[in-house]
Input
Amino acid sequence: MPDRRAHGLSVENLVVRYDAGPPAVDGVSFSVSPGELFVLVGPSGCGKSTVLRALAGLVRPERGVVALGGKTVTQSPGGVFVPPSDRHLGLVFQSYALWPQMTVGENVRFPLEARGAPKSAWAAQVVRALERVELAALADRPVPSLSGGQQQRVALARAIVSDPPIVLLDEPLSNLDAELRRQMRTELREIQREVGATMVHVTHDREEAMELGDRVGVMRDGRLLEVGAPEELYRTPAHAWTARFLGETSALVCAEVRSAGPGQALVSTDLGVFRCRAPAVSVPGPSAMVIRAEDIVWSPDSSGDPENLVEGRISTVRFLGSRTLYGIESVGVRLWASSIVHRGEPGDSVSLRLPPESCLLVRRDAD
Ligand SMILES: Nc1ncnc2c1ncn2[C@@H]1O[C@H](COP(=O)(O)OP(=O)(O)OP(=O)(O)O)[C@@H](O)[C@H]1O
Ligand SMILES: [Mg+2]
Output
């Protein structure tokens, strides 16, 4: 029986440079527990695929240690380098990388042949992998006759057919239309639970990252900025950049800390004085206050405590069906506030309350 127990993995201080320029991956460290689905998310070119290539042994890092299932497979410098074929990983590449001259079944069977698995079990394993992605009926079809979504599933079946303890997926849903992407996200999660493998999934799509990941690592310019459970990252990012990347409707206002207590702070901003959450009390360097559009409270007027109150004018109205998003201008700062009921038209004056528990002090990185 193949070893179906999931393996953990770790990456320590990984540096990968393709040429004389700056490193594509610069000092990345993280670890993934057995059976966990870990997602790396970040904009195009930030180094996500390069991290996966280093895990798979498809690039040799300049520095760093990679361990799979507790075994060091790369150590640079140090000379340890286990070749890709001996790492027993399931791989789904950014392009599906299927062989067009082969049938669906032959494509899925390929890793079993390459690994020298007992021939007598091939047919059953191929059927089982294809059943998991609901393609068993298409085993004899030539690959080019399949739709994009079906080819994507063939790539997934091929990655899991030999029961690898770790599966690496590079943008496996990127070529699908929006509806199929959503459907495949759910299926992928189910397949992961069923197979029980540890997965590292790479995407530039923040919604996909948050829906799929047990934990999510946010990458920017070759660095891993922060790692956390999806809701924790969304609600309490440490960096302004993460806040903006994960939630496009947030407002970010430069903030100067006036006083700080345990977990909270009083800050001055261009919009006035605010009480806010400050989980990292010692937010070093320049900071910003972030608030999500959905957390802003529409106030009937500006009476009462002036703290955490903003007065402004509606500048933009975006009707999104279940809610409307309002752009609000206040002393040259743009805020976004959402509402399920109609709140006015461009030019109307509004008062907004930003509840202290929804205002968050974060680190403002150099942009
Ligand atoms: N084979 C290569 N030779 C030279 N530079 C490369 C090579 N592959 C990637 N790079 C560069 O390394 C950086 C990181 O690339 P990488 O493919 O890891 O990014 P990514 O986050 O996967 O991007 P995407 O979301 O577009 O797939 C980029 O600047 C890219 O141009
Ligand atoms: Mg990539």
Remarks:
- The helical segments are 48-56, 104-115, 122-132, 148-160, 178-195, 206-212, 230-235, 240-246.
- The chain is about 25% helix and 35% strand.
